[in-house]
Every structure is written in C-alpha cells, then in structure tokens.
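Regression test case RT-17, inverse folding.

Input:
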C-alpha cells in the first residue's frame, strides 16, 4: 500500500495590520494518523514553533515572517507545506482596515508622481492589505503592463514612451481595489524644448481623455480603464496627441 502523504489544503499568505488575529490552515491525508508541526522563519533564522502541533496555527501579527508546516505519518514519512508570507504593516492610517473587514484588498500605500530623465530608472511603489495577500497588476494609460505584477514597478532604463498615467490594481478572492492614478514624466525638459521649437504654423490635434473609476457612492468600475485605453488608440490613429487621465 502507499504511504504517501498528500497535502489537501495549503496555508495562504496574508497581508495584515500589526495586532491583527488570524489562523493559518494546513490539511493533509495519509494512510496512518498524521502529526503536524509549524515552523517560522525571520530573516535567515528558521525555527520550530513550540506547541504548534495542530492543523491550525493561530497568529497575532507582530512582524513579517515566513511559515511552513511539516506533516509526519507513523512510518516516518514527512512532507512540508508551501512557505507562506505573513506581511505585517506596522503603520496603518486610522480607520484601516474597515471595521467589518472581510479580507478584501485595502490600499495602504499609493504611488507618487515621478519626473525622470530619459535613461534613468523609474520606481513606483504601492502596498495593500488583504486575506489572502493581494496580487498586483500595473497599468499605464489604461494599458495592462504584462511584466509588472509586483508591489514595486521597476523600469531600469526609461524611454519617453514610458511617460503616462500609472495605477495599480490589488486583487484577491474577495475583490479588488485600485491605487490613486499618478503621472510619470520622462524627459520632460527635452519634450518641452521640442514643443517650443515646433513651427507655429503646424497645427497639432490634442485629445484629453478622463476616465472616472472611483465614485463616493458607487462601486468601483472596471470599464473606464479599458475605455480610455481603447479610445486613446483610436484617437492616436486619427492623428491626435492623446493625454489620458484617470480619476
């Protein structure tokens, strides 16, 4: 007969405020009775958690750490669960998370406007709480940035085409939330000189697109991001210089 141990429910990473209480869960199946033991890792120090021998591990969030659970059977077989991260936010604004928080993403750090010369690095940063921990997706001018799926957006060598309006969507199984939209200016001085030197006889067509995504008394909308993106492409094909703004 098989003595394999199969983990049927992995623990999940969370992103929570300091002092928040929650439970990490691990479930497994085997041919004999199973024993559980939780471990944590802070920086490079990995240690057994005394007394943490149940399927559930209650935690009061104090500092960001990694956790894993070892499952043993009576034949000395053992498997480890996935390592999960408990990210703890030490400084959270008053009123966050909401009183009846169910774990939906809550933005705790918005990106800030940037002015960068061509060829210099660009970094935008955001953060959100959530249970499970949110995943991230960055957008520029309503256009999904396929490679930018972390809290930090990083471009090593910027180009003028990297200019635009950026925002990030944090999402988990409970929903999604968007950061504030911020403008990024690449090579602003060079662009200003180019516009000043343009012959006044040349007429330029400029289109300003404004998409409202967040309303005070209405749920967040998805359509404005997509609409602004599609309209900007259409207008660019018609010869317009397009400026896209969100919220």
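Golden output:
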């Amino acid at each position: 007969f098989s003595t394999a141990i199969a983990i049927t429910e992995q623990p999940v990473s969370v992103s929570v405020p300091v002092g928040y209480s929650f439970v990490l869960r691990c479930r497994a199946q085997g041919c004999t009775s199973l024993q559980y033991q939780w471990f944590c890792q802070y920086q490079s120090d990995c240690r057994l958690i005394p007394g943490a021998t149940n399927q559930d591990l209650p935690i009061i969030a104090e500092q960001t750490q990694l956790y894993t659970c070892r499952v043993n059977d009576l034949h000395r077989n053992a498997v480890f669960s996935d390592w999960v991260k408990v990210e703890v936010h030490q400084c959270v604004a008053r009123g966050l998370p909401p009183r009846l928080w169910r774990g939906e993403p809550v933005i705790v750090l918005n990106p800030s406007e940037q002015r960068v010369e061509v060829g210099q690095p660009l970094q935008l940063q955001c953060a959100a709480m959530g249970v499970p921990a949110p995943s991230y997706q960055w957008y520029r001018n309503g256009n999904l940035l396929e490679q930018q799926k972390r809290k930090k957006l990083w471009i090593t060598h910027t180009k003028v085409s990297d200019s635009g309006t950026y925002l990030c969507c944090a999402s988990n199984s409970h929903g999604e939330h968007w950061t504030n939209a911020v403008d990024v200016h690449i090579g602003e001085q060079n662009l200003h000189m180019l516009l000043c030197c343009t012959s006044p006889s040349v007429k330029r067509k400029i289109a300003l697109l404004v998409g409202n995504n967040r309303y005070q008394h209405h749920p967040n909308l998805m359509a404005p991001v997509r609409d602004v993106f599609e309209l900007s492409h259409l207008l660019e094909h018609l010869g317009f210089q397009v400026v896209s703004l969100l919220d």
